[in-house]
Each structure stands twice: as structure tokens, then as C-alpha cells.
Amino acid sequence: MTQDLTGKTALVTGASRGLGAAIARTLAARGAKVAINTFGSPERADRLCDEISLIGGKARTFRADVRDESAVRAMVASIEQTLGPVDIAVCNATGPQPFLSLEDLTWQYCLDQLEFFVKSPMLIAQAVIPGMKYRRRGRIINIGSEVFEKGVPKFSHYVAAKGAQLGLTRSWAMELAEFGITVNLVAPGWIPTERHAADSDESKQAYAAAVPMKHMGVPDDIASTVAFLASDAAGFITGQKISVNGGNTLE
């Protein structure tokens, strides 16, 4: 089966930089029309659209807060009018991820993470699945993390939200399978992006030394996995968490 995405429309949330931008580039290179969602960086998203155009792809910027129900529905309606019905939804948007001891943790910090990893994927899915059900095909791909397996200390609000995201993935996969809609989660290890510019080389080296493959991944590792799951070649894969972390976790 082919991994060509020609004729498909893909929405990637939080796609103006980092993993989201890499995913958008790769989906466009495989032939998809890509809706690049951003909230705070429309100029950066527009530059990414221009970059994709230069390689012969098609992309458009759609600004929306993916934690807001009305904004999500308006965005998806605009995508459908501009690029066509959404065939692939990649839920990648995230926010600040502070490290916090249990003593400093508040319920609001937990809610902040759940807004991105439970509420936002729910809103995106609710907006796109009516059309996917009608066409009896579709792909929903959540971007998770290895932290749920690693149990990273002082990160419980983030770890718990990522665990909840995995729960959504598994339950939705069972609910939507009969309609030809697959739901999977890609779980990266620590992949340095712009978000990690202030992290020390020492911490990165220490992490890499503990990875069985002895190096960190790159955004394209995640993007190529997403592109595979988005393709016809992955049509019989659903409800799965695909860890892309050099063997750093085993399930």
C-alpha cells in the first residue's frame, strides 16, 4: 500500500515551529494539502507555508486557539472551504511545561495541561469526525510523550495529562474503527526543538547517554512516523502508541 498522501487534507495543530512544523513539511512533501494551525505565531506559520510552496506543496495558515470550541469549529469550517474536508488530524499543540514539585503543584497547573492534551484533541476530533464518518475514512494522530512510561519526577501534571491523552486514543480507536477511522498516538522521546534552546548541553548529553541507541532523535523522526500512520499503508493500525525514542521505553 502507498504512503502517498496526494489529494488528502491534513490539519496539524501547533504547527508553526518544532515538531509541528516538521510534521507539516513531511505531510506536504508526501502530497497532502496542509492546514497549519497556530495561535501566537502567524508570521512564523506564514513563512512555513512559503517554504512548503517552494518545494511544490500546498499549505495555508489557520489561526485559532485549539482550546476554544467555537474557534476550533470555525477553523475546521474554514479549512474545508479552502483546502477541502479534513482527512488527517494531527493533535500536536502544546503550551508551557514547567517542572513543579508536588508541594508547588496546583489543580490549575493540572488543568493547564489537560486543556492541551484532553480538551483540544476532543474538540478537534468532534469537529472532523462527522465528515470522516460520512466518507468512512480518516486519521486522527495524537502526539504524546514517553513521560507516561518514564514517570518523570516533578512533572506529574504533564505526565498525567499525557496518560489521559493515551486513554482517549485507545477508546476513540475502538469507537471509530467501524467507520474506517484510525486513531493512534506517536510518543516521542526528548527531541530538541526551539522550545529547548535554553536547555543545557550537559542535560542533553546525559539523556542521550541513557538512550539505547546513544543519541537523541530529530523532528523528522517523528514526522516520518506520523506520515506513515496518516497513509493507506497504516490502514489496519489503530489504538496504538508508537514510541519513537531509540528504545528508551519498552512496552
3D architecture notes:
With 251 residues, the protein is an alpha/beta fold. The protein has one domain (9-243): Rossmann fold. The chain is built from eight helices and seven strands, in the order βαβαβαβαβααβααβ. It has helices at residues 18-29, 42-54, 69-82, 107-135, 147-150, 156-176, 201-210, 219-230; strands at residues 9-12, 33-38, 58-63, 88-91, 138-143, 181-188, 241-244. Helix 1 (18-29) packs across helix 8 (219-230), helix 3 (69-82) packs parallel to helix 4 and helix 4 packs parallel to helix 6 (156-176). The model has no long low-confidence stretch (mean pLDDT 95).
Topology:
Blueprint: E1 9-12, H1 18-29, E2 33-38, H2 42-54, E3 58-63, H3 69-82, E4 88-91, H4 107-135, E5 138-143, H5 147-150, H6 156-176, E6 181-188, H7 201-210, H8 219-230, E7 241-244
Parallel strand pairs: 1-2, 1-4, 2-3, 4-5, 5-6, 6-7
